[in-house]
Amino acid sequence: MKEREYLLTLYEIYKSLLTEKEKSYFEYYYFEDYSLQEIADNYKVSKSYVGKLITTIENKLIKYETALNINNKNNKIKDILNKIQDEKLKTKIEEIL
Fold first, then answer.
1. pTM for the predicted model, two decimal places
2. Within 13 Å, how many C-alpha atoms sit on residue 2's CB side?
3. Residue 39: which residues within 8 A CB-CB, separation 6 or more?
4. Is residue 92, in this structure, part of any structural domain at all?
């Protein structure tokens, strides 16, 4: 479950770097809970093709995070935010995130 949440977080950050096709497959699989077979049937492709494409997309998202480190930096900022007492400053920083 933790890996799923991680991939969903990465998707929200990096989805603009994916093709429309990749976004569609990912969203069917992760957001709509379609099985690989259901996606394959919808797109008239093989189940193995869908599985490979989902794995490729997941690997891309992890590769983007490894290179750009945005999620990790956001988490560090959120940790610091939790320690800030000044609510105005906290709100301004949260708006940036």
1. 0.83
2. 0
3. 25, 28, 29, 50
4. no
Instruction: Please tell me the total number of residues recorded for the chain in this structure.
Output: 97
**Tokens (6 digits) for 2:** 């933790």
Q: Name which of 94, 24, 97, 90 is nearest 57 in CA terms.
A: 24
Answer yes or no: are the C-beta atoms of 94 and 81 closer than 8 Å. yes
- Asked if residue 30 is part of any domain, the answer here is yes
74 within domain boundaries: no
Which CATH number characterizes residue 8's domain? 1.10.10.10
pLDDT above 90 for 83: no
For residues 57 and 23, is the Cβ–Cβ distance under 8 A?
no
Q: pLDDT tens, 42-70?
A: 999 999 999 999 999 999 999 999 999 99
